[in-house]
Amino acid sequence: MKAIVVAAALGALLACTAWAPVAVRTAEAADGAGLYAQCAGCHGEDGGKAALGAARPVKGQTADALYGKLKGYADGSYGGSKKAVMAGIAKKLSDEAMRALAAHMASF
Ligand code: HEC
Fold this sequence. Notes:
With 108 residues, the chain is mainly α. It has one domain: Cytochrome c-like domain (Cytochrome Bc1 Complex, Chain D, domain 2, Orthogonal Bundle). It is built from 6 helices and no strands.
């Protein structure tokens, strides 16, 4: 009897451990404003800055265009002279995070 309880508790614990990273990613991805905090240093709080003097401001662009550009940086099909900077960043973003970020930037 005791063994069953212990096994069940262990099973629940393992299930939680396996689930935790997924839950964290989803929560992050849903929060475009929170994710954008890591971008604001270069792109500006309101997206109006030319990042590193090279980027077109993200402010004033549509969510579709921004999402397409993030995808492009990740797969190497988009970018200018400093695209390596963004490729490194975009490759770490999930599809969901890109969508949340694009929607947030489109609201500037
Ligand atoms: C270290 C500075 C830096 C950080 C941090 C940074 N970017 Fe960039 N970003 C750039 C540079 C430089 C470019 C222009 C690269 C090129 O030459 O294509 C750029 C370009 C872009 C573009 C394309 C603009 C256009 O219209 O061509 C988007 C969209 C973008 N960044 C989104 C983001 C998002 C979202 C984040 C945060 C997850 C982020 N950036 C973080 C420097 C940065």
